[in-house]
Write a structure and sequence with these properties.
Length: 76
């Protein structure tokens, strides 16, 4: 499942990130990496960008196109 497919308040664990090295490094620098837990907080009115919480500590906005490159596994 892709991060962009999660619904509000759903939690998931990042399984893999697709993209070039620069993209992966940029995400890693803000805490988005394999094994990190993410939770969708809200979407903008047009569903792009989306606001997520990473590891219950930081909140960021991410574009839908970027979120489509992040594979996640839902946490119950």
């Amino acid at each position: 499942m892709k991060l962009s497919e999660l619904k509000i308040n759903e939690k998931a664990k990042i399984v893999s990130i697709c993209g070039d090295d620069a993209f992966k490094i940029r995400l890693n620098n803000i805490g988005i990496k394999n094994g990190a837990e993410v939770k969708v907080l809200r979407f903008s009115p047009l569903f792009d960008p989306m606001e997520i919480e990473v590891n219950e500590s930081i909140t960021i906005a991410i574009r839908k196109k970027s979120a489509e490159n992040i594979e996640v596994e839902i946490i119950e």
